[in-house]
Amino acid sequence: MLKDLCLLNGTSGREDAVRNYIIEKIKDKCEYSVDALGSVIAFKKGKKAPDKKVLVAAHTDEVGFIITDITDDGYLRFAPVGGIDAAVVLGRRVDINGIKGVVGAKAVHLLSDDEKKNEPAFDKLAIDIGAADKAEAEKAVSLGDCAYFASDYCEFGDGFIKSKALDDRIGCMLMIELINSDLEYDTYFCFNVQEEVGLRGSGCSAYAVKPDVAVILESTTAADIDGVTGGDKCCVLGKGPVVSFMDGRTIYDKQIFDLAFEVAKENNIKIQTKTKIAGGNDAGAIQKSGAGCRVAAVSLPCRYIHSGSSVVKIGDIEETRRFLPLFLSKLYD
Description:
alpha+beta, 7-stranded mixed beta sheet, 6-stranded antiparallel beta sheet, globular
């Protein structure tokens, strides 16, 4: 299922294919609706009605690109949708409406000394789809079309997965699995749109659900790579799910944060926290929606996030699968 989800294209505001896939997977297991922005709001009946309304959330969109101009020579100018470093884009294959292209820029042999010292910028990049001129390019691509990393899904090394869109199709997969399981308590699930461009969908869906407690399933930045030491690693692949105490958008509920580590310790489940205050996720909008909501974030550590070659570890997914039902069961009373 994770491979299927990751290989679907769905950047912010264009999540239709991902939403349709999710609905096919959950439609016979729960009640659901689609709101005006396109988020899927699902309600799964459990064995008991809890005292608190608990929401589990993940986002369906991925980072990508939007076409802003077509040059006379038939090249496509574009802008990022979501936070993407231009350095991870140069030379990459992309897909636009099934049309293959390559992100190109001036060759290194032609760069000035000053240009060689600077990172590439999006306004200096263009997508080459092999068009002879503007008229030919316009037959295949229109302004406002989205482009995506053309990335294979593969397993490699000692239990690693490489793909685009692991942020946050992992969260979507885990939620589908929960909906298809036998839950102890009634639970709401929101598959939110437009997280990568400002947490837009989650604010609306949380306003509709009005949860008391929300758990956001995500992927988060791991920098456990060569040359990075100590807290600068942020989190580490192979050490289990990441439960955050704070990030760039949210200060998380301390009692729930502590509870997560208690549950993991009692059940011999690997768990870790982030060692840098960085990034953000839908908790930032859900926490402030309506009368307010207590929030927790449970994330998969992910190397090279927001690129076409994000990497996670299968063991961390398995630990998170073990952890979630046990953790959620403590939040309903």
